[in-house]
Amino acid sequence: YVLPDGGDVRVYTLIADPSGTDIVAGTPGAETVFRENFIQTVMEECEAEEKKGRRVLCASNADFFEMFGNGEPSGLCVKNGILVSDRNPENPFFGIGKDGKPVIGTRHDTDVRSLAEAVGGGPIIVKNGKIYQTRPLESFGDTPHPRTAFGIRGDGRVMIVVVDGRRPSWSNGAALTELAELMIAKGAVEAILRTARVSGVR
User: Fold this and answer.
1) With the C-alpha atoms ordered 166, 170, 172, 177, is the resulting torsion angle positive or negative?
2) Which of 27, 145, 155, 174 is the most exposed place for a label (fewest CB within 10 A)?
3) Pairwise CA distance, residues 193 & 176, whole Å
4) Distance between the two ends of the chain, CA-based, in angstroms?
5) What is the DSSP letter of 83?
């Protein structure tokens, strides 16, 4: 993609059909309980899933966590229908319902007991096919950065979009409005930023 100012942006997109693929929340050790100070990289979490019999096709970072604390996720985490963590119930989330359908929402509009999998994030940048909360973070939202977003397309498929950034000769990143526009152009009717809490990356 080329930004209005002429800068290049490189974007990686995964589209998955939740009816034919298990979309799961990665956790340290692939466990359904939170263990203090047990932190793993995305690759290590993939390896833990594979040791428990799952074949991992792809993975993405998700919610931030207490990097300098006990390692607890910043927002909601549900794995195999079990609530692992829910430290900030105001934070939005991306999840898969027990009916197999993807959902982006908040605790105000979703019963956690209906979720099979969920990871925290926010803000919600696309809602009902329109740009939504792209300016809650002031300069963070207006400045191009590397971004990860989860989206739900009109056909029910899930998108994970990663925008590379902070490398002007390769890719400049995207502001939140640009990211929302990109998600809509790719068919998203709902989309959420991977997260915006600045404390660490799981």
Assistant:
1) negative
2) 155
3) 8
4) 28
5) E
Question: Does 21 score more than 90 pLDDT?
Answer: no
| DSSP-assigned beta bridge partners for residue 150 | 160, 192
Instruction: List pLDDT tens digits, range 47-59.
Output: 999 999 999 999 9
Distances (CA, A) of 107 to 111, 116, 147, 194: 7, 15, 24, 17
Give the model's pLDDT for residue 136. Answer: 57
Q: How far apart (Å, rounded) are the C-alpha atoms in residues 174 and 158?
A: 20
Is pLDDT of 180 > 80?
yes
Contact between 107 and 115 (Cβ < 8 Å): no
How far apart are alpha carbons 159 and 72 in whole angstroms?
26
Distance CA 201, CA 181 (A): 25
